[in-house]
Amino acid sequence: MSNPRFIQIHFLTGYSATLLNRDDAGMAKRLPFGGSTRTRVSSQCLKRHWRTAEDVHALSNIKEVEMSLRSRHIFDKLVALPLIEEEGLDRQKVEAAVAAFQDKLLGSSARAKKEKKEKSEKGDKGDGALSLQTSQVVILGWPEVRFIQEKVRAILANTSEVKEIGAAVEAFFKTEKKNMEALINTMPLPAGLDAALFGRMVTSDLLTRLDAAIHVAHAFTVHEHELETDYFSALDDLLQESGELGSGHINDSELTSGIFYGYVVVDIPLLVSNLTGCPRKDWESADRGLAAQVVENLLHLIATVSPGAKKGATAPYAYAEMILVESGNRQPRTLANAFRRAVPNKGREELRDTAIAQLGDYLKKFDTMYGGGETRRVAAMADMSAIGAESVVGLAELARWSADQVRGGGVMEILMLRLEAPLLSFGGPMVDQNGVIRPFPATSMLTGLLANALGWDHADTENMDRLQSRIRFAARLDREGNRVEEYQTVDLGQEFMDMKKYGWTTRGEVEVRGKGDATSSTHIRFRPFQADVLCTVALFLEPADVAPTLANLASALAEPARPLFIGRKSCLPSTPILAGQVKADTLHEALMHFIHKALPQDIKSPPSGNMRACWPPGQGPEDPNNTTLDPWYDRRDWQNQIHCGQRMVRIGMLRLPQEGKHG
Q: In this predicted model, what pLDDT tens digit does every residue of 399-449 receive, in sequence order?
């Protein structure tokens, strides 16, 4: 697939009785929006908590990278002090040299320069200190700090008098400026990891200015501001012992509750450029491993790290209840306008579910107007059918998927399957005892087919669940065939129905029925089948580098561990199921260009004309005027042997071009 340029992250998180972010008066921050006031959490507050989180997914835990330093005291405490206290260098010389470097790197006012020059030339004996504290918070990386120390050390080694140091630093910068620029720019992450993510503004010719690759919006409540003034008092225990009431302090504070909508954008080309040092235009050929790791960790931090003041009094800890991630190339756009009309917080409707429905309605209208341009995945603690995105099993899978989008890798390796038989069955969830068939194969059916080829058993429920969660497929109906309903009766009490003697199985062992009516009575039922169907399936696995791989599946289908069937054991394939492997940007593209090899039983030439097809959102056209977005319930809980879960699927028509890629 083409490499996406943007990752967009939308989240809903609920908090109760908290004061997440205060203004200068100690009140909860607010935002007027859509004619009503909302509670707000600033982007700066969110970024700081994500940057400084001490967590298994903390940015500081990413191996072989260093975080940035943010302080007004970098030059005095981290540059000068180690040279003085640990290396025993002369304090006045060190401070003079560091001050001169600070002026050259950051610049300073004419007045400040004059004061420092006078102190330096006099060798001021007063308190012996030049002020190396900067007027504003400075962001530097450890590589830059070590570089400055190294150059200060070298200048002091060749300078004997304090008054000579300023001129020595000036001469050094004149002769070595270009070399310094090149050296700093070739360092890995010279400004530190978080500066590469959230940006750094500097006016220096030497230090690199970094534009933020991760953009964070202010979060706000999807409903009107909900506020309670909390009156509290602090008691004086010693006064109480003397018989007084004991109140030592009385005050009040705001407490708010709400469900917050948050929005984050990752500019992938800029992120890769900031992390690797490559030009932005060359990002696709650069190593994107670190960028992918950053995005994976960031997803976890966004979902699980809470901002919050008054932590001791409110315990403001909550996890996101919905995270929607979009991957694509179009200019990003917020979904905040879905909540321009504040979600009504009255009645018996669950506020979160109403917010999700409102978000889904806005997204549907947006796609209708502008067309679908993003691939979407969502993880949530609620029904997400209104969103029109494929649901994933949990935050970890969503984070891995997001990281895979950053890694990219160009076109996908796709496995092509040919499902053809005189009778086959693409089953759906049972309704009472009535079997249901669908036009297209189910994820659970493909899971069972592949597991059978691999030689797995039904008891391998964990493996089956994992494989099912990784399967992404599209299908087209080359030949739709006809529906056939079979009326079946069987006297299970007959001797030839004794399963211990005459049973048949694909596992090499005779199957035995249970007790009761299943072993002795007459069994009657209707079974639907599809006759003379040819269905082409394009399939890949996500993630791709986990066993079993696509290559493992291809080998198993070519030489299966057991006889294969399509839906039911009586539905034996009439042609090899493995049709080949192709490379394509999307599953839809794979179906568009794949034509089966001619086989002896093929009555007509490779198919042409319009064919019904299905594909996951983001893996083909999203035009709502020519496709429908339908909910499918085609996954299976293999442990409990029941259908479960829902995903959204695009249904549309597909026409093969004149020449296709033959399997």
A: 988 998 898 755 688 999 999 999 998 877 666 556 678 899 999 999 999
| Mean predicted confidence (pLDDT) in 207-225 | 91
Looking at residue 602, its amino acid is D
How far is it, in rounded angstroms, from Cα 463 to Cα 638?
9
What are the tens digits of pLDDT across the range 222-234?
A: 999 998 888 777 8
* Distance from chain centroid for Cα 79: 38
Q: Which amino acid is at 135?
A: S
Q: Copy the structure tokens of residue 216.
A: 């964070």
- Residue 510, number of CB atoms within 10 A of its CB: 13
Q: Is the model's pTM score more than 0.90? A: no
- Is cis: bond before 190, omega within 30 of 0? no
* Cα–Cα dist 290/283, whole Å: 13
Distance CA 401, CA 333 (A): 21
∠ Cα 133 136 141 (to 5°): 80
Q: Is 520's pLDDT higher than 50?
A: yes
- Paired tokens of 628: 């429908």
Q: Residue 444 in contact with residue 643, Cβ under 8 Å? A: yes
**Maximum Cα interatomic distance, the chain, rounded to a whole number of Å:** 114
Under 8 Å between Cβ of 84 and 91? yes
Does 111 have pLDDT greater than 50? no
How far from each other are the two terminal CA atoms of the chain, in whole angstroms?
20
Query: For residue 418, how many C-alpha atoms fall within 13 Å in the half-sphere facing its CB?
Result: 22
Which residues have CB under 8 Å from 570's CB, separation 6+? Answer: 423
Quick check: 359 and 338 in contact, CB under 8 A? yes
How far is residue 11's CA from residue 264's CA, in Å, rounded to a whole number? 9
Torsions phi, psi for 64 (to 5 deg) = 65, 25
CB 303 within 8 A of CB 323: yes
pLDDT score of 519: 58
Is the peptide bond preceding residue 548 cis, with omega within 30 degrees of 0? yes
Which tokens go with 144? Answer: 């830059």
184: tokens are 């700093």
Instruction: Take residue 49 and report the two structure tokens written for it.
Output: 């908590």
Tell me the per-residue pLDDT of 64-93, one tens digit each, with 9 for 90 and over.
889 999 999 999 999 999 999 989 898 999
Which residue matches tokens 């049972």? Answer: 430
Q: Which helix or strand (DSSP H or E) is residue 12 part of?
A: strand 6-18
Pairing outcome for strands 522-541 and 374-380: unpaired
Q: What is the pLDDT of residue 606?
A: 45
Q: Is 620 exposed, middle or buried (0-12, 13-18, 19+ CB in 10 A)?
A: buried
d(CA 581, CA 537) in angstroms, rounded, equals 11
Q: Which of 650 and 249 is assigned the larger pLDDT?
A: 650
Residue 322's pLDDT is 95
């049973």: which residue's tokens?
A: 503
Residue 554 amino acid letter: A
Residue 662 pLDDT > 50: no
Say if residues 633 and 646 touch (Cβ distance below 8 Å).
yes
Q: What is the DSSP string of 517-552?
A: HHHHSEEEEEEEEEEEEEEEEEEEESSTTSSS-HHH
Residue 109 reports pLDDT greater than 50: no
State the pairing for strand pair 138-141/226-235. unpaired
**What is residue 648's predicted lDDT score, i.e. its pLDDT?**
83
Amino acid residing at 124: D
Which residue bears the tokens 């908290």? 18
Beta bridge partners of 22: 28
Tell which wins on pLDDT, 208 or 655. 655
